[in-house]
Design brief:
The complex is a heterodimer of chains A (156) and B (441).
Chain A lengths: L1 H19 L47 H5 L1 H5 L6 H4 L2 H4 L11 H4 L14 H11 L1 H8 L5 H4 L4
Helix pairs in contact in A: 7-8
Chain B lengths: L10 H18 L3 H4 L1 E16 L5 E4 L1 E11 L6 E12 L9 E13 L6 E11 L2 E13 L4 E10 L11 E13 L3 E12 L6 E13 L2 E10 L4 E11 L5 E11 H4 L18 E14 L2 E12 L7 E12 L4 E12 L6 E10 L4 E12 L11 E14 L2 E11 L6 E13 L7
Antiparallel strand pairs in B: 1-2, 1-3, 1-23, 3-4, 4-5, 5-6, 6-7, 7-8, 8-9, 9-10, 10-11, 11-12, 12-13, 13-14, 14-15, 15-16, 16-17, 17-18, 18-19, 19-20, 20-21, 21-22, 22-23
The chains are: A mainly alpha (156), B mainly beta (441).
Chain lengths: 156, 441
């Protein structure tokens, strides 16, 4: 078992060394670490300036229009890479929700941004009993391996 | 079950080393600081609220939170970046959490971004989403794509996790990777693997995953992701969707998703997801649809529907629907909206309706917002309380003191089966500084 794991690690390292060799890396320009232009306020629509395909995500810019569809399925895209995301969003943006030991709910921190999607609005202490029963998988993504202080009061 | 204990992250042992390495690497880069593109953000939140205890006595709480983030790119004119995000709390009145102080380093890492092909490497503590992985880890990550579109990513380290379960311990290591093929503008297919070893068997996790994005026609794409938990030999989760984007103003998606409790919740550290709280033989299957249509400039309608089916009669099946209209104005700086949502379920205790209205107004340096939400439960949600309605109103006022400095405050009123005429206040001071212009980080 251990031998197989070592072999896999060595194989991975070799593959990586090959890929990082200058000739092995794609010649497509990388996404800049910071979006070069100031972005307009509100939900981003890349199509206002861009056409065609993003060099970072290798997907059409229209895919990344921050519509309700994209916001609800952003995890699908981020699991294939975050280069394009990180051009505009710092790590702190993701970890507003995807945190390890967060105590403040996103909608409390963003109380002055009612336009933003933020779960737990209202007295969610009551509503979460129903949402948690019906669709616990949606809770699990953020709460499965973290325990903020509010959970401890009941979930012991 | 005994007294809950907070099990610290194993990252606590690794973190000092990571901090040292990250700072040391920064110093190795000659003239790094002056050449860097730096953004810095500080957000201070002061909360005030009180809770009535049995017997009528009231406790007052005043936790003060500080959130800091710093990002420096192009260190020494090299494609190297440094990222930090963390927060801390101190209680100015009664103890509001576990102890009078708390805090966390969310991320702290060095990043190398290759100028071509989006090849990258990370070292430190970071939030990773890659294939089946969606974890915070103390470790390393590398990713590269070849000219033919074939690529690989690898990661390894110690997971940063927290538990309040008695007897539960941390996972000691996590590693995995993803092999993928991407054809620009047409398809990306990936196969991924994750292995997490815990100090107790229940925390072991071995996942195999697949992910897919294909543009089958202009404006039509298919997405899919699935993970199989080999530890329990069950599918963990699946999600497949078709998305139609016929132009810049319409976005439609429909799909199917499913997860099995045993596969998905296997290594959960939150007690709500483990046996005795949830029936681990249950499986959830959902069909969903979402429409986002900007039917006239500035006006958007959103419609969401989801049918949720359980294998088990408890909690039973349900339908969730939502419709909302949003209006953006003032150069998109302000948005107003109304939303109505409902949950219709097999079991009456799972049914409720929700109504929400919100608006913001930002003349010059002032910003005012109002957000009101009402929830009507079909049956009283809490045993012993006949109250079936909940209301909350959040009013905020803010002022831009300096170009980078904003002061704002929230006043929240809540009336619900839990809270009886509850007021809570929040003061927010935010400072955002950047040495370069561009997209706000």
């Amino acid at each position: 078992m251990m031998r197989r794991a070592y072999a896999a690690n060595i194989l991975g390292a070799v593959l990586l060394a090959l890929l990082f060799g200058c000739s092995a890396v794609s010649k497509t320009p990388s996404v800049p670490p910071k979006h070069p232009e100031d972005l307009a306020a509100g939900r981003v629509n890349c199509l206002e300036c861009h056409e065609n395909v993003s060099t970072g995500a290798l997907k059409p810019y229209g895919t990344f229009r921050h519509s309700r569809v994209f916001i609800s399925s952003h995890g699908t895209y981020s699991r294939q890479g975050q280069s394009l995301c990180s051009s505009c969003h710092a790590p702190a943006f993701c970890q507003t929700c995807h945190a390890g030991k967060e105590e403040l709910k996103p909608n409390v921190k963003m109380g002055d941004r009612p336009d933003r999607m933020a779960p737990h609005r209202g007295d969610y202490l009551v509503a979460h009993r129903i949402d948690g029963r019906l669709d616990p998988g949606s809770c699990f993504r953020c709460h499965g391996n973290k325990n903020d202080v509010k959970c401890k009061q009941c979930h012991k | 079950m005994g007294r809950p204990t907070t099990v610290g992250s194993p990252g606590k042992r690794l973190l000092p080393a990571i901090v040292s390495i990250s700072l040391f690497l920064s110093l190795l880069i000659p003239g790094a600081a002056p050449a860097a593109d730096v953004t810095f953000s500080s957000k201070t939140y002061g909360l005030f609220y009180q809770r009535e205890l049995p017997g009528g006595e009231k406790d007052r709480y005043a936790p003060l939170y500080e959130y800091l983030s710093a990002d420096a790119a192009n260190l020494g004119d090299m494609p190297i970046a440094f990222h930090f995000y963390g927060w801390g709390r101190v209680d100015l009145a009664e103890e509001s959490g576990s102890g009078r102080t708390s805090g966390e380093i969310g991320s702290l890492y060095m990043e190398y971004l290759h100028p071509q092909g989006n090849a990258q490497a990370k070292l430190g503590r970071f939030f990773l989403t890659e294939g089946v992985a969606m974890d915070i880890i103390d470790g390393a990550f590398v990713k590269a794509t070849t000219p033919v579109g074939l690529g690989v990513s690898l990661y390894g380290g110690v997971p940063v996790e927290y538990s309040i379960l008695s007897g539960a311990d941390r996972a000691d290591s996590i590693y995995g990777g993803r092999v993928f093929f991407a054809k620009s503008g047409f398809a990306e297919l990936g196969a991924s693997y994750l292995k997490e070893d815990g100090s107790v068997e229940r925390l072991d996790r071995e996942l195999y995953g697949g992910d897919l994005w294909v543009r089958v026609a202009s404006g039509v794409e298919l997405t899919g992701q699935a993970s199989y938990n080999r530890t329990v030999r069950e599918m963990a989760s699946e999600r497949y969707a078709v998305r139609i984007v016929p132009g810049a103003t319409v976005d439609i998606s429909a799909g199917y998703e499913a997860y099995e409790y045993a596969g998905l919740f296997r290594s959960a550290l939150h007690p709500a997801f483990v046996v005795a709280t949830a029936d681990n033989n249950d499986k959830v299957q959902s069909i969903f649809g979402i429409v986002d249509w900007e039917f006239t400039p500035g006006w958007t309608v959103e419609v969401v529907g989801k049918n949720i089916r359980h294998d088990k009669s408890d909690p039973g099946d349900a339908n969730r629907g939502e419709i909302g209209v949003r209006r953006s104005y003032n150069d998109k700086k302000d948005v107003a909206g109304i939303v109505a949502a409902f949950v219709a379920a097999d079991r009456g205790e799972n049914e409720y309706r929700e109504y929400r209205a919100f608006a913001s107004y930002s003349p010059e340096k002032l910003r005012l917002t109002l957000d009101a939400i009402a929830q009507q439960y079909e049956r009283a949600p809490l045993p012993g309380s006949g109250e079936k309605n909940a209301y909350q109103v959040v009013a905020t006022a803010g002022y831009q003191l300096l170009a980078a400095l904003n002061l704002s405050g929230n006043l929240t009123y809540t009336e619900s089966p839990i809270f009886d005429k509850d007021y809570a206040g929040l003061v927010r001071l935010s400072y955002d500084l950047g040495t370069v212009t561009g997209g706000k980080k």
